[in-house]
Amino acid sequence: MSQAYSLHENAAIPDKDIRTAIKAGGWPLAAALLCLLATAFPALAEVRERVEPYAISGRTGLELYLSIGEHGPKAGGGRAIAHTNFKLTWRRNYQRQGNGCTLVAARPKLVITYTLPKPSAPLPAETQRRWDIFVEGIRKHEEVHGAAIKDMVERIEQTTVGFSVPDDPDCRKIRKAIQKPLSEASQAQRKHSRDFDRVEMGKGGNIQQLILGLIGKP
């Protein structure tokens, strides 16, 4: 699964920017014995967060902000200040239980990438002070998206691991049976991020205040 969220001033995140590749599928037809979870395949998540900077230039806060508008990552029909992207893959352990099949464990591998602006040259002291406040606020904003992504992974684990499907000795039906909770977790995460952006990027919101602080306007 990969998904992107971008930060820009007027901020609705278009669906076309969201690419989902969830494999394995839907709502379980029966519950499994949870005591099986401690055996054979511990669900230890592998999570990595990385920052990918993009270069901007300028000597003043306004020049830096204008450079962000020219060089920021593409989002919708314009440019973003920052961008959060993730790639999620799974190793799932399906086991035959009698004539049915149980998902006894699922091990996620999650890579979250934050794309943030970075000046390409040293800044004057006052501009550096303003920049440090600005970029720290943007970083914290993007980390909220990152936390929502990690919550989504946890929800997927909680709503899929331990479920079983009867009459599925080859463990084929269960791959469709987990599709619904996967989709629901993804939709919840996307809604959370859209709602968060709507508040943060609204008039008088945190992002507007960070921009005004950078360019030096009250």
What's the quick description here?
With 218 residues, this protein is of the alpha+beta class. It has helices at residues 61-71, 125-160, 173-177, 179-200, 206-215, and strands at 2-7, 30-31, 46-56, 74-75, 78-79, 82-97, 100-119, 163-165. A hairpin with a 2-residue loop joins β4 and β5.
Topology:
Blueprint: E1 2-7, E2 30-31, E3 46-56, H1 61-71, E4 74-75, E5 78-79, E6 82-97, E7 100-119, H2 125-160, E8 163-165, H3 173-177, H4 179-200, H5 206-215
Parallel strand pairs: 3-7
Antiparallel strand pairs: 1-6, 2-8, 4-5, 6-7, 7-8
Keywords:
single chain, 218 residues, alpha+beta, six-stranded mixed beta sheet, two-stranded antiparallel sheet, 5 helices, 8 strands, disordered N terminus
